[in-house]
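Help needed: design a sequence for this.
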């Protein structure tokens, strides 16, 4: 493992093309857990003057030759990260022979062993831990792979592309060859070997091509791959219908692994997944799990065009594939399920994670100018804000120009390693608009704030809107320029319709706020009463909206709204203001008018239960936190709980009525049934919020009778916060029932860490089933505690900070990427009230002194800066 004290920074402005092309490569693996031999042949052609520099980390070099001639010690230079050959011919074949140790690979980058099977993870820079190679996305090669292994232990041998020769060797070994005809960068290479059960199916593309599909999972688990397979077929069909993109190989395989640093990986023809996003059965998976599987299977599949066929020139362009592919998976989910519900969930994630990131010391542009560690660039900003920018673009130029631009992009850039500029040139062509100002969104960090002021002129029946924007300063960016902000806008008549504003179609328009300030005057029919303004409908731009509306005005607006997103958002604003008031006035009871209005809104929407369920969710602490300086998470949590309890009491009979009905049987992971269960689990949650012994016993009864994981887990979650026998029994029954299913036990850890104290988190991290080498298990305790339980994590006694600091220090020795990700939970420390702030600073300062990995140091240094 590389340890350095001075974080080195890679800069976008220093990009230079690689001076060689490697059109073809042959890799030959002789697989052994502790000593795998990798022989690589590459056909190299010079494009520009210069030495041949290859990346390589942790490799034992056995030999190297050019055109069959072994090189001597003086012919090349090897250091910790590179192999350099100063003088090479213009065209040659380079052969290297290295040995690696997959079993010792705890960082889960490169080739490693998970549950006794070989698997690989090469994005972003794992391939250099497998063989010497120019490990950068703009070098694209055709790979031919051969591997041999012990046949009994590793009967299935997989790589990218399509299978070719197979056969038996001596000593009980066998071999397989794979051929990928599509040139690809090294980060998309994959290899898996072991014993699996397979769920198979087939797909016929719109071109009539036949594709063999396989999902490879643990022995005995094939049936649990069925939903992932259904999701894969739905993804293939959707990309054909929505974007005209068909699959381009005869084989598509997915392999599930239990030890994985991320959700999943889009390797060409051989996606590798965290098993949490593959395995599902009605008894053990929640509706949220089924939904996540569908969306992540879609995401990785959609990368085949946005990421693989068109890849990134360099890692600064990461949003080119990730932002776009998240946008595509969000659209996929919207089309398969409910568009408004999907939009609300996506905005919840954006606000909780990306707005928080944008407001702290780790803020960075969607396309940064520099990075210290590439693993730390896989952020909410790159993924989620990146997707929002594509969505804002569709609003700004319209769906037709957007679709046309996408087709230009696929036509012009197929087979290339591209940039954000390349991508936007397609939409400039399609729309005829200059999008250079829009691209500022990619260069500026921070969440723009838009202020709206209204003036009503009754005599002339005109409404004047004064709009202005500012973006707060972020690290290394003191001043910001205005960005184009497309605001979907409507004028509401208060009777469920729109006012016929002059020049607006159906009373709706898109206002493009491109400058710092803008005034818009709208004429409505003479004699109209004052219309109500509905703005940033569907959350058309990723901004914070400032409007000076009191509770009465917001309630009136919520009742008049025609946009489901804005209905939900009006109640979020109301709830936020009320929680802040309760925090400032600890003696005052929750406002009855608000509680009644919220309960009424939930009841009125019961025919759309997935939407109604979201109305019961109050803004979470992470979001409330952002608007307080200094922030007191424990106080916010207490105020939020008081409001939630009031809502629970107001809705007690609704909860009883809804929960008295049976849960849908037989279970199916359909949007319909999931909606019904979402409403039921919302009511389970509210029942828990009452906090009474009666609530606990009715929850325990529901828990005992639950026929699906969604409700069983909801009951457990609700019970956790009510100390007593029902709670303790539920915790132990759940454990005993599921102790052999690691994905369910992850949930068991997470519900406890997500609501307990620092002591609970420490106790969980000492449980015999806690496992530092398994990222899912580590996250189920550490991330659940530090990222979803802010009141306890940031408790003034500092214990929460210390627990996480300790876990991070231990993890960092095994898995730096995971340690760095956990450290981001400290990103808001400077906003904390003085006591918690001091303890966070102590923990971070101690970590800085502790010689952590470069990944971890990058976060610590930026957080402290
Ligand atoms: N490209 C993957 C995705 O978003 C992300 C990913 C998977 C990843 N594994 C990783 C990123 C390891 C960094 C390190 O679909
Ligand atoms: Zn992705």
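Sure. Designed sequence:
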């Amino acid at each position: 493992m590389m340890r350095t004290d001075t974080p080195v920074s890679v800069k976008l402005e220093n990009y230079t093309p690689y001076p060689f092309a490697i059109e073809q490569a042959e890799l030959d693996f002789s697989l052994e857990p502790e000593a795998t031999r990798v022989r690589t042949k590459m056909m190299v052609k010079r494009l520009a003057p210069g030495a041949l520099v290859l990346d390589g980390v942790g490799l034992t070099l056995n030999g190297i030759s050019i055109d069959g001639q072994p090189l001597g010690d003086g012919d090349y230079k090897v250091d910790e990260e590179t192999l350099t050959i100063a003088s090479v011919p213009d065209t040659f074949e380079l052969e290297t022979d290295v040995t690696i140790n997959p079993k010792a690979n705890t960082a889960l980058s490169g080739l490693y062993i998970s549950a006794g099977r070989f698997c690989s993870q090469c994005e972003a820079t794992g391939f250099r831990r497998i063989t010497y190679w120019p490990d950068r996305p703009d070098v694209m090669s055709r790979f031919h792979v051969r591997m041999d292994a012990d046949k009994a232990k590793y009967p299935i041998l997989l790589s990218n592309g399509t299978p070719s020769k197979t056969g038996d060797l001596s000593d009980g070994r066998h071999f397989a060859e794979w051929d990928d005809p599509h040139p690809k960068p090294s980060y998309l290479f994959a290899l898996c070997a072991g014993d699996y059960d397979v769920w198979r199916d087939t797909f016929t593309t719109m071109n009539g091509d036949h594709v063999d599909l396989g999902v490879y999972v643990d022995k005995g688990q094939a049936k649990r791959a069925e939903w992932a397979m259904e999701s894969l077929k739905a993804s293939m069909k959707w990309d054909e219908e929505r974007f005209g993109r068909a699959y381009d190989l005869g084989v598509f395989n997915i392999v599930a692994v239990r030890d994985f640093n991320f959700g999943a990986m889009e390797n060409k023809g051989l996606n590798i997944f965290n098993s949490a996003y593959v395995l599902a059965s009605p008894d053990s998976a929640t509706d949220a799990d089924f939904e996540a599987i569908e969306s992540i299977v879609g995401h990785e599949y959609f990368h085949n065009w946005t990421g693989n066929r068109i890849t990134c020139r360099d890692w600064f362009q990461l949003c080119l594939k990730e932002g776009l592919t998240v946008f595509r998976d969000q659209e996929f989910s919207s089309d398969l399920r409910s568009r408004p519900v999907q939009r609300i969930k996506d905005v919840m994630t954006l606000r909780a994670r990306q707005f928080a990131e944008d407001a702290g010391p780790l803020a960075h542009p969607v396309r940064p100018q520099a990075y210290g560690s590439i693993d730390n660039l896989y952020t909410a900003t790159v993924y989620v804000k990146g997707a929002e920018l594509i969505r804002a673009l569709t609003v700004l130029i319209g769906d037709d120009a957007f679709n046309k631009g996408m087709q230009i992009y696929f036509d012009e850039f197929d087979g290339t390693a591209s940039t954000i500029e390349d991508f936007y040139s397609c939409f400039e062509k399609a729309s005829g608009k200059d999008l250079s100002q829009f691209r500022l969104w990619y260069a500026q960090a921070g969440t723009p704030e838009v202020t709206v002021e209204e003036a009503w002129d009754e005599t002339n029946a005109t409404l004047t809107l004064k709009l202005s924007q500012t973006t707060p300063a972020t690290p290394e960016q003191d001043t910001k320029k205005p960005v184009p902000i497309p605001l979907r806008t409507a004028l509401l008549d208060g009777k469920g319709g729109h006012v016929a504003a002059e020049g607006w179609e159906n009373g709706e328009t898109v206002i493009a706020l491109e400058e710092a300030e803008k005034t818009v005057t709208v004429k409505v029919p003479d004699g109209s009463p004052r219309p109500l303004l509905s703005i940033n409908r569907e959350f058309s731009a990723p901004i914070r909206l400032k409007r000076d509306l009191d509770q009465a005005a917001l309630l009136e607006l919520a009742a008049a709204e025609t946009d489901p997103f804005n209905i939900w958002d009006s109640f979020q604003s109301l709830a936020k203001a009320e929680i802040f008031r309760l925090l400032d006035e600890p003696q005052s009871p929750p406002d009855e008018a608000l509680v009644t209005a919220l309960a009424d809104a939930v009841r009125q929407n019961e025919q759309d239960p997935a939407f109604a369920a979201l109305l019961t969710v109050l803004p979470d602490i992470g979001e409330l936190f952002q608007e307080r300086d200094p922030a007191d998470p424990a106080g916010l949590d207490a105020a939020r709980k008081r409001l939630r309890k009031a809502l629970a009491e107001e809705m007690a009979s609704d909860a009883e009525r809804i929960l008295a009905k049976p849960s849908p049987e037989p279970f199916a992971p359909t949007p319909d049934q999931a909606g019904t269960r979402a409403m039921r689990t919302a009511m389970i949650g509210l029942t828990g919020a009452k906090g009474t012994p009666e609530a606990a016993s009715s929850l325990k009864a529901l828990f005992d009778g639950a026929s699906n994981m969604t409700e069983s887990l909801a009951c457990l979650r609700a019970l956790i916060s009510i100390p007593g026998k029902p709670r303790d029994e539920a915790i132990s029954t759940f454990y005993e029932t599921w102790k052999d299913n690691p994905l369910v036990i992850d949930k068991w850890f997470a519900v406890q860490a997500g609501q307990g104290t620092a002591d609970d988190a420490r106790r969980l991290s000492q449980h015999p089933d806690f496992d530092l080498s398994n990222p899912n298990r580590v996250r189920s305790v550490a991330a659940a505690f530090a990222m979803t339980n802010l009141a306890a994590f940031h408790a003034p006694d500092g214990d929460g900070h210390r627990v996480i600091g300790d876990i991070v220090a231990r993890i960092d020795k095994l898995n730096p990427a995971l340690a760095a990700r956990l450290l981001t939970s400290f990103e808001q420390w400077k906003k904390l009230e003085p006591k918690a702030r001091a303890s966070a600073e102590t923990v971070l300062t101690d970590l800085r002194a502790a010689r952590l990995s470069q990944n971890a140091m990058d976060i610590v240094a930026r957080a402290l800066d």
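The first strand starts at residue 10 and ends at 11.
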